[in-house]
From TrEMBL:
Keywords: Isomerase. Gene3D superfamilies: Divalent-metal-dependent TIM barrel enzymes. This is Xylose isomerase-like TIM barrel domain-containing protein. GO terms for biological process: glyoxylate metabolic process. Belongs to the hyi family.
């Protein structure tokens, strides 16, 4: 397991991208997530990442204001394809190996209708990335933060993942969304384990750095991942209570219980 700093959530909007890269590097991070690297010239991102020796591991497909993607929305296939090609070009330029496909808000649309649209778009997308070193990810988003999103529960994605049975289409599992939905974290992790390729976390209250005292289930889930020999990334996708550097105190706690090997907590067993 390796921790990845989420450059999108860990800093306030006034912090420029280059400073974000410098600050995560100073805390020992080598891997980062960047949700939407579409607002500046691609070279701006690439140069700062290279200057600070950072490897980007995850991007999302583009979204627009008040929109959470298009993959499950009927009638938006042409725009989805254009956005997806943009995401693939961006991922390849920056060296990211995973793309989170944003499904969109389906609200009261019949499940059969949005599922059919999603599967059609996924089939097209999988054909597009065939032969490329890219994994497509689907992530449930809790219905409190994103009401109307196509799927809020991991189990909703099992039929879709089972249908494709592709190593290039996997589950992005987030402790935060799972806990917000009041699901048992470790049990859900075990059930969804065969589908998981990428993991993120945050405290379920306020989406801040995890409070391991109040939420020991997060520690239990990390031990479970250790037992399962998870070799992927753990995305620190949270809003710090105060500032980025101060928020990393939880990593020291993980080091004390044998879940981290780096003095700054970044390298995870």
């Amino acid at each position: 397991m390796r921790f990845a700093a989420n450059l999108s959530l860990l800093f306030t909007p006034d912090v420029c991208f280059k400073e974000r890269c410098a600050r995560v590097t100073s805390q020992g991070f080598q891997y980062v997530e960047l949700l939407f690297p579409y607002y500046q010239p691609i070279n701006t991102y690439a140069e700062s990442l290279e200057e600070h020796g950072l490897q980007i591991v995850l991007v999302n497909t583009p979204i627009r204001p008040n929109e959470f993607g298009l993959a499950a929305l009927p009638g938006q296939q042409t725009q989805f394809q254009s956005d997806f090609k943009w995401a693939v070009d961006t991922a390849q330029t920056l060296g990211a190996k995973s793309i989170h496909i944003m499904a969109g808000k389906t609200f009261n649309l019949p499940t059969e209708q949005w599922e059919q649209t999603l599967c059609q778009n996924l089939e097209w997308a999988l054909n597009y990335v065939q032969g490329k070193n890219i994994t497509l990810l689907l992530e449930p988003l809790n219905h409190y933060d994103v009401p109307g999103y196509a799927y809020s529960l991991p189990d909703q994605l099992r039929p879709i993942l089972d249908h494709f049975q592709s190593e290039q289409l996997r589950l992005q599992f987030d402790f935060y969304h799972t806990l917000k939905e009041k699901l048992p974290l470790v049990d859900t992790l075990r059930i969804m384990w065969p589908y998981i390729d990428h993991i993120q976390f945050a405290d379920p209250y306020g989406r801040h750095e995890p409070n391991l005292t109040e939420h020991p289930e997060i520690i239990h889930a990390l031990y479970e991942l250790q037992a399962l020999s998870y070799s992927g990334f753990l995305g620190c996708e949270y809003h710090p209570t105060t500032d980025f550097e101060s928020s990393l105190h939880f990593l020291q706690s993980l080091q004390h219980i044998g879940l981290c090997t780096n003095p700054k907590g970044v390298a995870c067993i």
